[in-house]
Amino acid sequence: MDDNSYLSESWSQMDFFIVTTGLIDTSLEGVDIAFLKVLRLLRILRPLRFLSHSSSMKTLIEALMASIPSIMNVGVVIVIVFLMFAILGVNLFAGKLQSCTVGFYKINTMEECFKVRGKWVTFD
Questions:
Q1: Which has more pLDDT, 79 or 111?
Q2: In this structure, what DSSP letter does residue 123 have?
């Protein structure tokens, strides 16, 4: 490929892919094949064709793509914080989520529940 060819730029390659899949989908519109449903889903990418014509939008999308690794790092930290609170919750509520089938709010121990012939239920 030459340096000045249409497909030398990645935005133009994406534009070519979107146009080609659109043409294939349009030519086979009456046929109902599972593979063509995937091509119909690619219609979502049509607005991305306008990115290749606007330099400011290109810059914005490229900056967004460059920031994805940093966003992933923040996501990992958030997952670790959620994990810490999940472990804390399991430790605090371990064995506390149990009740008796008879006198749901009045009977708090397994022995009292068995005395009134109830069933001790644990919520898992």
A1: 79
A2: -
